[in-house]
Specification:
395 residues, alpha/beta, Aspartate Aminotransferase, domain 1, 8-stranded mixed β-sheet, 3-stranded antiparallel β-sheet, binds pyridoxal-5'-phosphate
């Protein structure tokens, strides 16, 4: 067996299950989960229809690069959403959800033969980044988020000697779990570091369509373009339909950016078997071409934040995020203890923040917080907020 597999950590939800094993949830209340970040709004009918109308495609092997029509639809969406022109022939590739692509890119980019191959990741973070680094033969260096600066990542935690050996940097904007959006200044600094040290930037933007204010979050390609980097050198952005269009089960997304990196990625994917099914490609074209369902989706998330925050804010420290569908709330007691009491007393599941982060210098930047995924219906989210507030008041 590959010994690197032994370096993988259990997934946060496995850890949560183990931690909650002895807990008996209050049987008098119906269960509510704000634990898993799985979108639960209904899949739009036109996407379901497009999928079944193209089942004939099952009789053919799809190409790994995807159909020209799909790559064109992705490029057109990038043009509308990010005001950036990309070449659909060389700068876009369909992927089966951003998760597999975030993992696979590390296998393409990392040269494990170079001394101390390093991947830099925010902390807390989406655990795939760490697993991807470890299985590529690299190790992770973490940069914690700074609560005092709206959870922006504190890149000064990465010493120059570490940047020098860094081959890949993951960024996540809007962030999971914090919802923080990266600024142009932050992008400029990271591009400068990438130019100096030659690492690739993987920009995870899978929450980029769930924005809560008036302006859509700045994406990596747009930041590059504003800064005159029209070739998107060493930058790959990851987009996904899962959250945007409520199709987490369809497994559809794309990557876009540096043509040279994508050429190598396409080669890798040809061997790995990363082609997207033809019916999924057609349903994806329909989804990327439509904006009205996305606006409706955003409105529903906004309503949840509007209803839930006035219940929580009088009792716990929690801010409206820039974007995404999570609240990153401070707990008055240890986060695992808080999650346990909430399940036991109020039959409500939340994710302890410490499970989403790694301790650095004895401090876990997720400790003392819980992630609340506002993915349930509005009434259920409101009910859950009431239960959380009741628990806090009882402590
Ligand atoms: C930060 C982040 N990136 C990527 C993903 C993967 O999403 P998908 O593979 O559905 O595109 C998730 C899923 O929850 C996520 O939270």
């Amino acid at each position: 067996m590959n010994p690197l597999l032994n370096r993988l950590q259990p997934y946060p939800f496995e850890k949560l299950r183990a931690l909650m094993a002895g807990v008996r949830p209050n049987p008098d209340l119906p269960p509510i989960s704000l634990g898993i970040g799985e979108p639960r709004h209904p899949t739009p009918e036109f996407i379901r229809r497009a999928l079944v109308e193209h089942l004939d495609g099952l009789a053919h092997y799809p190409s790994t690069a995807g159909s020209a029509a799909l790559r064109q639809a992705c490029a057109a969406w990038i043009g509308r959403r990010h005001r950036v022109t990309v070449d659909p022939g060389t700068q876009v590739l369909p992927v089966n959800g951003s998760r597999e692509a975030l993992f696979a890119l590390a296998q393409v980019v990392i040269d494990p033969g170079r001394p101390l191959a390093t991947v830099v990741s925010p902390n807390p973070f989406y655990q795939i980044y760490e697993g991807a680094a470890l299985l590529a033969g690299a190790h992770c260096h973490f940069a914690p988020v700074d609560a005092a600066r709206n959870f922006a990542v504190d890149w000064s935690f990465v010493p120059d000697a570490v940047w020098q050996r860094t081959q890949l940097l993951y960024v996540c904007s809007p962030g999971n779990p914090t919802g923080a959006v990266m600024t142009l200044d932050e992008w400029e600094r990271l591009f400068e570091l990438s130019d100096r040290h030659g690492f690739v930037i993987a920009s995870d933007e899978c929450y980029g369509e769930i924005w809560l204010g008036d302006t859509p979050p700045l994406g990596g390609l747009e930041a590059a373009s504003i800064l005159g980097r029209h070739d998107f050198r060493r930058l790959v952005m990851f987009s996904s339909l899962s959250k945007r269009s409520n199709v987490p089960g369809m497994r559809s997304g794309f990557v876009a950016g540096d043509a040279e990196v994508l050429k190598a990625f396409l080669l890798y994917r040809t061997y790995h078997g990363g082609a997207m099914g033809p019916a999924v490609q057609e349903a994806s074209i329909a989804a990327w071409n439509d904006e009205s369902h996305v606006a409706g989706n955003r409105a529903l998330y906004r309503e949840k934040f509007d209803r839930v925050l006035p219940i929580l804010q009088p009792v716990i420290k929690v801010a409206r995020p820039d974007a995404g569908f999570y609240l990153w709330a401070e707990t008055p007691i240890d986060d695992v203890e808080f999650a346990r009491s909430l399940l036991e007393t109020y039959n409500c599941t939340v994710l302890p923040g410490s499970l989403l982060a790694r301790a650095q210098d004895g401090h876990n930047p997720g400790a003392g917080r819980v992630r609340l995924a506002l993915v349930a219906g509005v009434d259920e989210c409101v009910e859950a907020a009431g239960r959380i507030a009741a628990l806090v008041r009882s402590l």
